[in-house]
Protein 1
Amino acid sequence: MKKRLFIGLALPNEIKKHLKREMEKISPRLQDARVVKPDLWHITLLFLGYQEDEFLPAIIEALQKAGEAFSPPLIKFSHMATHPQKKPRVLWVETDQATAEILRPIKNLLEESVLASGLPLDPDIHPLRPHITLARIEERARIEVNPISLTDSFEAETLELFESILDANNGPEYITLQRFAFGEKTD
């Protein structure tokens, strides 16, 4: 049976609470957007698409390998804004550039490991732009949100394998299938 999978970072509750307060401030402008439920907010590192159950052990091994290879990364946010700027499709919170640089080798090791295992995966040709999707904007909607500077940060403790179950009536549901702690801190 195929599962729709991705690997990412879960957010601590304090971050979700702060982002929820920020969303409440701009909610009147989001009437033509599908707001993502806060319990679904995460940072995707690698989207795996639909994969057969037979590939789960290889994916879990790649997840464990990456978790053990890296110290817990410090995630710092930069701003909340719509993206792309011309015809926005999402409202997101983007990390700062230093965070993107920290997460890039983790994503690369994950991708290399799953590809080496024979997993059918299209290599991601887009540069990693770590972010949290807060809302999806309808195609013809005109939503203007001036960028909001954010200074939140957290140390990611785990790397997680999520299953995404799509439901046309109720929206997606994300289930954590496996979680591995990042390796020891190095000061």
Protein 2
Amino acid sequence: MIPSSLQHRSICRHARTLWLLVLVVSFPGVLHAGSHAPEISASPDLARAGYFHLRWALNDVDVDHYTVEEAADPDFTDPAVLYEGADRATVISGRSDGTFHFRVRASLADGSESGWSDTQTVEVAHHPLAQAIGLFILGGLVFLATTGLIVAGTSAGRRAAGGA
């Protein structure tokens, strides 16, 4: 025979478990609101060409749309909404040199919102102008040398064909 105090504790434990199960099944957004945040990533973290990819996602929940914010400082004291919609990636281009901070939040289908993601920082540092001009000149020299070799080879081929 089981003592009544043990029976009472066992019944209470099962009742609490059953009550939590009813809450989770009835209100699935309760577990997700604020407890999960989307993940955000950038490729590359150092953008030398002036463009980069941002990707974000919140898996295992029904997301209605995402809000991506951008700020000049990592504390997001003055954020600007960069994107709001259902897409999970974007390409950002045309930025001047500097450091940019991004974060994302998901609005779930049940009307609740996730927490903000960790901050993703991207540094844009274009190639120096002197390097770009140097590479442009080098490309021009390679073009001229290739054109010269083609013309010289064509002339030599015609002379060889005419003398045969």
Protein 3
Amino acid sequence: MFSGLIKDQKLVFAFTILVISIFIFLTTVVIVAYMLFSENKYVPFFLRPFIDYHVHFMLIMSIVGVFSGFSFYFLISYTLKKEKSLIKKTIELVRKFLSDDEKRVIDALLEKQGLITQSDVSRLFGFSRVKTHRVIKRLEKRGIVYIDKQGKINYVRLVNTFLESEP
């Protein structure tokens, strides 16, 4: 919806900081004014409007608070979208340098939410135990998977980067 409006991440970040700062400032001023007023202390003339028009300032604060939330949400979602896109491009590049067997193992891991046993890989693809071990070891050396040994069972897990890139 607003993705076309977000052209410059620095501008969005600056706007978000500005809106949040205004919200914090207004909240602090209203709290100080009410604290002084409730203790029957002298309220300086520049804080007096916050007491006299407190309903108006509460409305302004709620609007600024909503804008703070929206701007923070759009900043974070935009940043995450860019990061996810970069991760996908990186993964596509990495996949170009993998053998067909390694790609098949990665695809099987993605189907199984990133966890599969080494014996399941052998069974799924008809690999010998030695071939399975070598394929998985190559993927581990490249930092794509890691092996979690639990007793006699070797669990093969994808690193989080690969799992996060899948829709």
Protein 4
Amino acid sequence: MEQELFSNLRGAVSIGQVISVNDAGQAQTVSVLTADNVVRADVEVMMPFGFASMPPLHGAICLLLAVGADPANLRALPIAAPAQRFGGQQPGEAAMYAQDGTRVAVRQGGVVEIWGGTQINLHTETCSISAPAGCTINAAAGTTINGNTEIAGNLTVTGNISQG
């Protein structure tokens, strides 16, 4: 009896090497190569609500759970890519990142860093920035504002003002 229980528990969790990912359906699915050298296709990935990712295939792995200890009923936990991991975090910090270095990092001391590789798009009905200690925009190529602009306070200009 103990040997059967041990075998069932041992077979309930395994690791798989991700071969392909299908992100087109209602649920993301993967094809994986199991530790037994068996390819399993259309294994549903159990993604946490509110997060989505399409992992790079090179080095991607996942934990496989046999629901009810039934190897025909596999589910994959979120996919890991250890070689692509964003390291160097301090205790209590978190980051969301992409393979190209684009990331949002929540740092100690109330700092949020947003790194857009080439562009950051913000889409919202209204936008408000509160920065009581000041706000600096460094844009070497210039800044364009489309639409009416209202300034409530003083305006100091150190360069030329030209009419467009």
